[in-house]
Amino acid sequence: MSAAIGAALAIALSATGSAVGSAFGGQVAIVQRSSGGSMSAFIPIVMAGVVGIYGLITSVCIAAQAACTTHDEEAGSRLLGAGLAMGIPGLVSGCAIGLFCHYLLANINTGAGGPTPPGYARVQDSDEGVESSSTIRKPQIGLDPQALVSTPVILVLIFIEALALYGLIASLVLTGKSC
């Protein structure tokens, strides 16, 4: 029973993190593609999807181990731990990818004529030059939509995804005991 819970947690938590990362990565891709960007805009989506694949690999390994191992408490606890060792880092890594993409979207330079990210409204000054009370101006670092997927951004995404890779390695070590 513990092994089945471990397999379910590995895939469910990793897939949840992957979905969050893919959702915000999709918004980055939409903004970059609408401003004439290349297909590299889809890199955050692919990287978030790999986190879900790590969870799938772990759950398959746990299921295979559970099928050939005697069902004692020690083996079940080890396989539950393997599922948690992949599921929690997968959730955190996917959410971190989404949070980083959200940060990129919040700091796009949306000057006149530039695309507005989905879910973000332009801040309009009133006639007197004073902001209306219903809008809050966010500090902008002035990212160009074309620079949303640049080398530094990809490096940050790689290091964020490494968290899930560490979870995969730990879970494979835990499930690596031979039948």
TrEMBL record:
A single GO molecular function term of this UniProt record: proton transmembrane transporter activity
Parts of the chain that traverse the membrane: 41-67, 79-105, 153-174
Keyword entries, A-Z: Ion transport, Membrane, Transmembrane, Transmembrane helix, Transport
First and last residue of the signal peptide: none
Keyword Transmembrane attributed: yes
InterPro entries: F/V-ATP_Csub_sf (IPR035921)
Ion transport as UniProt keyword: yes
GO cellular component, one term: proton-transporting two-sector ATPase complex, proton-transporting domain
Source organism superkingdom: Eukaryota
Family: Belongs to the V-ATPase proteolipid subunit family.
UniProt name for this protein: V-type proton ATPase 16 kDa proteolipid subunit
Source organism (scientific name): Hondaea fermentalgiana
